Protein 1
Amino acid sequence: DGGITQSPKYLFRKEGQNVTLSCEQNLNHDAMYWYRQDPGQGLRLIYYSQIVNDFQKGDIAEGYSVSREKKESFPLTVTSAQKNPTAFYLCASRTGETEAFFGQGTRLTVV
Amino acid sequence: AQSVTQLGSHVSVSEGALVLLRCNYSSSVPPYLFWYVQYPNQGLQLLLKYTSAATLVKGINGFEAEFKKSETSFHLTKPSAHMSDAAEYFCAVSDLVEAAGNKLTFGGGTRVLVKP
């Protein structure tokens, strides 16, 4: 089945630690996106990539980094510079003006 | 820049009653518009989309939405609410300008509570 897979589903981070969230798609979509979701704030765009080896900052990129070495993969690293990383993270992909397809999300908690 | 406003962060309806979720957008170009539904701790699922064809769009689970250019609105309706409709709903607009990355911009979401 085609789709987007995010892992892990739950992730715990200690203060000062970097963590990487995985996002893989087998839909052959060109564009991939990372969103952060906080209660009552909707979805805010962190980073997006339209093609391999290229990506752009979204509205809240500070404290995050990404890579796009393969079309299928768009991992997100939450660095220690992100002071409030506890949130629900959603990865999405799309091609052209079609709808975006979403993964099931990763819930990150700082402990 | 494009933006989306969803009026009402919470809506409570009785089972069997009309569901109406409001969405207004701003966009400098003809938009593509979407409604998504999210159940707790899950990703977003597409309900329906407007892509410049018919202005009345039918989606899954009995939902429909009407695009009104003059009002810059894309409100979501369902004639009769079911308990399974309890979820959070997001309206989104797509920027079709290539240089802007075909981004989807989301509204703040509306959480629907269905009372028996």
Note: The longest strand of chain A covers residues 43-51.
Protein 2
Amino acid sequence: QVYLQESGPGLVKPAETLSLTCTVSGVSISSGAYHWVWVRQAPTKGLEWIGTVYVSGTTSPYGGTTYYNPSLGSRLTISVDTSENHFSLKLDSLSAADTAIYYCARLTSGAGQFYWGQGTLVTVSS
Amino acid sequence: QSALTQPASVSGSPGQSITISCTGTSSDVGNHNLVSWYQQHPGKAPKLIIYEDIKRPSGVSTRFSGSKSGNTASLTISGLRTEDESDYYCCSYAGRQTWVFGGGTTLTVL
């Protein structure tokens, strides 16, 4: 069984940076079997794909190929730490519009199957 | 990259069938066989119920089925049950390793 668990602050101030981590158990994130994804859901809104990281055995321990939602532009960084078997999200210059439940998920890219963590609520407020 | 279009709400009575549409473009829904559907109960994470347009994961009821025509994918739930009352989201591959979700549909079982 593969489990994903998000962790990070529940409250962040405007203009600051959000850092979240998704710890994966049950499979190595560098196995190449899955892509690793961040998705968010603003209150009473739909789901929004944030970005993806893919790690293969030939990637450096702290590297990975990343794909980002263009709407988030240069504010977003997704990275991996294969030694800790987790991947992370960093989102800069926060505003109230970034208030959301943030989910990490594993993605079988060739089949479009997303399997989700439980999510973590992040509120941007002073 | 625009969100896929879903109706905000649908409703049906127990035992009936309902269909939820998901309209995209020739760059996403119409260009790849990678539409998936998710069921999300309040306060819970989404759950995969359909992938690759029409396939069901192991353990998902056969009452759930997917289809696609052109740029529009559809989710049909037959033999509605009260426990089907939930939010439903579609998702499509949009090329270059990007993904787009629909705005979600709330299903009410009357």
Note: Residues 50 and 72 of chain A are 8 Å apart (CA to CA).
Protein 3
Amino acid sequence: QKEVEQNSGPLSVPEGAIASLNCTYSDRGSQSFFWYRQYSGKSPELIMFIYSNGDKEDGRFTAQLNKASQYVSLLIRDSQPSDSATYLCAVYSGGGADGLTFGKGTHLIIQP
Amino acid sequence: EAQVTQNPRYLITVTGKKLTVTCSQNMNHEYMSWYRQDPGLGLRQIYYSMNVEVTDKGDVPEGYKVSRKEKRNFPLILESPSPNQTSLYFCASSLSRLSNQPQHFGDGTRLSIL
């Protein structure tokens, strides 16, 4: 059973600080990694995706991937109250069935 | 506007009364899927479809049926709904089921089965 683990939180961060969200995965053959943001009662919205080891930056968001440690993270710089949401990590491992597994999400709260 | 459209958005119904949740996408995507989301359990895949007439079970298919007769539509059918199917449902689509294709989600359907 492929697993994607996230700390459920809540993770509380002061406005303007860096929020760090973490995700570990069990399948060493995983190929692609996605971060989705989900506001309460709304649909998941893609924030970032990363395929290669290292960092990928997009505006205030940076995704970091370390395949050797089976670890992917999302950093949010200059956190804003509007960043308060649940962040879902999704990992694509390929192979049989669908190959895409979602974590249960981390609830992030940005304190004004 | 590129989108995934689900209907209805909200539905309250009773045990055993067949219902269908429709899903339509206008992006010519090959891949479509259905998820349910429950507190503490996260997103779990019900069924997915790689293309027209090709469907397969996800992690929690029991009690559900799907069909993919046209590329744009992927309805979710509950033949005999039960209270444990009360949940928030999402339809999603992506260009293909390649590893680098993110999914686009519909707005969700909140089902309550009494």
Note: Chain B touches chain A through 23 residues (CB under 8 Å).
